[in-house]
Amino acid sequence: MSERIPILRIGDTLLVSVQSDLEDQTVLNLQEDLADQIVARSAEGVIIDISALEIVDSFVGRMLATMAAISRMLDARTVVVGMRPAVAITLVELGLSLGGVSTALDLEKGLAKLRQSASSASQ
Questions:
Q1: Could you give the CA distance from residue 67 to residue 15 in angstroms, rounded to a whole number?
Q2: 78 has which bridge partners?
Q3: How far apart are CA 24 and CA 43, in angstroms?
Q4: Hey, which residues does 47 pair with through a beta bridge?
Q5: 3-state DSSP assignment of residue 45
Q6: Which residue of 14, 94, 121, 123 has the lowest C-beta tally within 10 Å?
Q7: 3-state secondary structure string, 49-94?
Q8: Using DSSP, how many helices (H) and how many strands (E) does the chain show?
Q9: Confidence (pTM)
């Protein structure tokens, strides 16, 4: 059985902190768990912290984009934080632009980006 990645709640934001390299089934489980939690907790924002990831493959890259798209469909904004330079380079080399996914260097900047996005949407 593959591991489950915990999804924490910070106000109206869900925090997913990926602490190990991701296996395909773990990513699929996370996608489903995240969608369920967005609905169950009426989340307005999602932060996916990948600072512990040293490498990604095309499957994980596509799944990050898919999770952001699912979040948008469920009315939650997504920010990926903590991307290492090697991960960014790999994603670009694989041709994965993660369209529609906001990024920030760290958790603090990611939370600020969600707050800014929420305040501009309410105006």
A1: 13
A2: 46
A3: 25
A4: 15, 79
A5: strand
A6: 123
A7: ECCCCCCCCHHHHHHHHHHHHHHHHCCCEEEEECCCHHHHHHHHHC
A8: 4, 5
A9: 0.89
- For residue 9, how far is the Cα from the chain centroid? 14
**15: which strand partners?**
8, 47
Structure tokens at 32: 């489903």
- Gap between the Cα atoms of 102 and 114, Å rounded: 9
Count how many Cα atoms sit within 13 Å of the Cα of residue 20 in the half-sphere of its side chain.
Answer: 8
- pLDDT, one tens digit per residue, over 24-58 is 888 889 999 999 999 999 999 999 999 998 888 88
* CA dist., res. 78 & res. 66, Å (int): 11
Distance CA 114, CA 79 (A): 7
**Dihedral (Cα; 22, 24, 30, 31), 10-degree rounding:** 130
**Distance separating alpha carbons of residues 21 and 36, to the nearest angstrom:** 23
| Phi, psi for 14 (deg, rounded to 5) | -100, 135
